Amino acid sequence: MKAMIVNEFGDSSVFTSTEIAKPEIKPGHVLVRVAASSVNTVDMMIRQMGPDLPLSPPAPAVLGMDFAGIIEAVGEGVTDFALGDEVYGCAGGLADLQGTLAEYMLADAKLIANKPKNLSMREAAALPLVAITAYEGLKRAQVKEGQNVLVHGGSGGVGHIALQLARYFGANVFSTGGGDAQTALIEELGATSINYKTETVADYVQKHTQGAGFDVIFDSVGGANLLNSFEAAALNGQIATTVSLLELDLSGAHFKGLSLHVVFMLIPMLHDHKREVHGQILTEVAGIIEAGHLRPVLDDLTFSLEEVGKAHDRLASGQGLGKVVIDI
């Protein structure tokens, strides 16, 4: 089968088109004919850092985590899927798991779900990693109906899904963005936009919560921005973040009694730990999508399998709006 592999790690030029053996079916797995894959920040980190990132596969490797496709073979013990099923998931591209940038991939049946019927393959491929991340973060932060929820980075990959899921769970949702296109998308998706470049944290906390702070904050920006989340949170508030690889003064969190939830959705794939939870989340997300409460936003540009390097460059440029998707 055709695949894009990396023989060494580095810039976006390291991808090479080659022929490799099609995976053989094994128990508990399905063989998927991949139709589309999307690019996530972690894909770029693996490509750049290689062995410096503990979750990276050894070279030569097939990268790519998210996919949508059609099942072509079903392994022993798999009862929830059949030949011809259209599925989506996040099931490869790290450690010893072959990625999605190939015509076929082997996927653990616990990590996948039936594709939302009202989405194209490209749209479905944009969802798994970001949808699982957003869902897990909001659930761990115990989001409830009627709460004031702030999503940092609401026009980004994870953020635009978290924003919509928080609305679906019944919250009053507010979201930060940094420009006209970003704030317009946030409003279009049903949240109140906050331009972090023109409004201070104190200003928007006073404006939208009368100074009390937000009950739940989903911080998809993270890093040093966590200090803004601490400032914006209500007393005993909940904060979920996807980016916490830094040293940080937690004094602000201490004096407000905040709970901080670090979401690292790759744990089930890396450690074979509760993988079935990912399949369950994707099944629930598919239902939410089919009921009309959630939709992925895709970047305007399209890329073929051979153009994966350009797709990585597009995401890295920050010029796109929505998920970057590759047609396989």
UniProtKB/TrEMBL annotation:
<dbReference type="InterPro" id="IPR002364">
    <property type="entry name" value="Quin_OxRdtase/zeta-crystal_CS"/>
</dbReference>
<dbReference type="InterPro" id="IPR011032">
    <property type="entry name" value="GroES-like_sf"/>
</dbReference>
<dbReference type="InterPro" id="IPR051603">
    <property type="entry name" value="Zinc-ADH_QOR/CCCR"/>
</dbReference>
<keyword id="KW-0694">RNA-binding</keyword>
<dbReference type="Pfam" id="PF08240">
    <property type="entry name" value="ADH_N"/>
</dbReference>
<keyword id="KW-0521">NADP</keyword>
<feature type="domain" description="Enoyl reductase (ER)">
    <location>
        <begin position="10"/>
        <end position="326"/>
    </location>
</feature>
<keyword id="KW-0963">Cytoplasm</keyword>
<dbReference type="InterPro" id="IPR036291">
    <property type="entry name" value="NAD(P)-bd_dom_sf"/>
</dbReference>
<protein>
    <submittedName>
        <fullName>Zinc-dependent alcohol dehydrogenase family protein</fullName>
    </submittedName>
</protein>
<dbReference type="InterPro" id="IPR013154">
    <property type="entry name" value="ADH-like_N"/>
</dbReference>
<comment type="subunit">
    <text>Homotetramer.</text>
</comment>
<dbReference type="InterPro" id="IPR020843">
    <property type="entry name" value="ER"/>
</dbReference>
<dbReference type="Pfam" id="PF13602">
    <property type="entry name" value="ADH_zinc_N_2"/>
</dbReference>
